[in-house]
Amino acid sequence: MPAKEAASRELYLDLLKRILVNVIYEDPAIPNPVFEREEYNRWARNTGSDWPSVAHTMVGKARLDNVQHCLESVIADGVPGDFIETGVWRGGVCILARGVFESYGITDRTVWVADSFEGVPSATDLSHPIDQRLNMHEHNEVLGVDEASVRANFERYGLLDDQVQFLPGWFNKTLPAAPIDRLSVLRLDGDLYESTLDALNPLYPKLSPGGYVIIDDYLVPGCRAAVDEFRDEHGITDPIERIDRWSVYWRRSQ
Questions:
Q1: CB pairs under 8 A, 24+ apart, for 30-39?
Q2: What's the domain range around 172?
């Protein structure tokens, strides 16, 4: 690959990440249980600790870097399959994934955008006590972003096309029936015990050897319990690697 082409790609992807987390215009934060202040804070934004009022992702720079790393790794190694994120908020991570494919001229991999587009279920609709205690539904005014808004965000970057497919609805209904053949990167951001298993059970069998699993909310007790139970049940011993204080990932060996 010509050095100039590689440099241009990296410049594009770096700028795309900076815009997605909005360290460019520095929008204020929405107070949340972790970061209660409203002013813009560069550390909070880069570490995914705040809830941006305008930016298209809340995951922070390190987690975006990890998505890029995983995608570029499977591209370089010829690992077959699409990208999916389960729990997309304003769509920023999926926009980055589509941008990576675009920058490499890849036309045969799909970005699957899976979300209820309503936020998270209420505590009364959840069966596991660890999820019921979390009360995430109390923040659905922020967490529930409708599908039309996410589509509009893709359009703003010029990245909404047939390689982007939406799976609207609760994971236990949509993911088992999703028309996905193979995955190379599976990113889970559903926060809860139930939503984590609702994604892992139908999607992990479709993950190619050499593909990656990214767990955004491993610090959250319910999510961690679900991941650990799933790995134990299926004899998964691939080492878990830390991304930041919130998130982890592993590469599937078989």
A1: 30/142, 32/139, 32/142
A2: 74-251
Q: Distances in Å between the alpha carbon of 152 and those of 92, 96, 247?
A: 12, 15, 27
pLDDT tens, position by position, 173-228: 999 999 999 999 999 999 899 999 999 999 999 999 999 999 999 999 999 999 99
Domain-embedded: residue 130: yes
Rounded Cα gap, residues 103 and 117, in angstroms: 28
Share of the chain above pLDDT 70, in %: 94
Please report, for residues 35, 138, 242, 249, the alpha-carbon distance to residue 209 in angstroms, rounded to integers and kept in the order given.
38, 38, 20, 14
Residue type, 161: D
Do residues 98 and 163 lie in contact, with contact meaning Cβ atoms separated by under 8 Å?
yes
Which amino acid belongs to residue 85?
E
Write the pLDDT tens digit of every residue in 48-71: 999 999 999 999 999 999 999 999
CATH number at residue 243: 3.40.50.150
Which secondary structure element, helix H or strand E, spans residue 148, and what is its range? Answer: helix 147-156
pTM, two decimal places:
0.95
Residue 142's CB is within 10 A of a number of other CB atoms, namely: 16
Residue 166 lies in a domain: yes
pLDDT of 129 > 80? The answer is no
3-state SS class at 253: coil
What's the total number of domains in the chain? Answer: 1
